[in-house]
Amino acid sequence: MYLASDNAAPAAEQVLQALARANAGASAPYGRDEPTRRVEAMFSELFEREVGVFLVTTGTAANALALAQITPPWGAAIGHAEAHVMHDECGAPEFFTAGAKIVGVPGRDGRMTADGLKALLARDFWTPPTHVAPASVTISQATEAGTLYRPAEIAAIAEAAKAHGLRVHMDGARFANAAAATGAAPAELTWRSGVEILSFGFTKNGAMAAEAVIVFADDLVKNLAERRKRGGHLWSKGRFIAAQVEALLENGLWLDLAARANATAGRLAKGLESRGLRLAFPIEANEVFVWLPPSVDDALRAAGAAYYAWSSESIAPERSGRDGARLARLICSFATPDEDVDAFLGVIDREPVA
Fold it and tell me: Where is the Aromatic amino acid beta-eliminating lyase/threonine aldolase domain positioned along the sequence (predicted)?
């Protein structure tokens, strides 16, 4: 009953096979290998245009490098107040930008809105040279609440950002889950809606350690290779990152695995609601946030269920918890067994919910 994180999922079998093939013989180092060249072409095909591709091994590196490319040390990167880059990167974006400030915008269900961004930018405290200057916007897809941005929402945020000269980044740690859930083309979820640079996550979705920074704005490619190297994130044996990405992009495996994770989360959510438990956020990807009575929470923990206690200030009033209820975050991966979901629900069946 492991529902704590999709980071704990195994690597997909196809990825392990690809790594074994990549391990046969020698190959050119530092991204000059054939697997990397093939992956670069695959990304351009996927996004329906030429893109810059920079492979790294962690989502933190992808986010920090991307934000450093669009945010000067005296600037501000603006995101949702509970975004991953705000709280869960141990200051890496601030470090890689050499001191830029991360500024949060509140928003219901973990989503920043164009109106919320406009309101923040309209405030009169952005006074040079004593205050940081707004430089970029970062959109989490999916959000920390497991919710999604549709293309129209992304476009509205990007329009508001660019009206003030801000660049637009997307933290796509769960970009695959968003694409699978919305059915929107990757191009529609990104550059056609105004995104200029994307952190494309694979590690949560079948890779061992593989992420990519995808650049849509031509001017943002300049010196990103040097920034990656200087930051210590250029692998000499880059073919092992590329091999993982190639295996996942090939034949749409990345979408198939994400769709499986989403479907498992949907089944879990339906089971929780049918047992009288209240969900804190809409279920749109592979994350489920549920209010648990203390007795149920205790019983699940005692039975060996693994998940995170959570807190959020972006929950709609009608989805708030009953007195004493504890908020739990449950995440399903492509490898979460149906038996784990059934066992989890089975423990709840043995406890009074009301």
Answer: 3-291
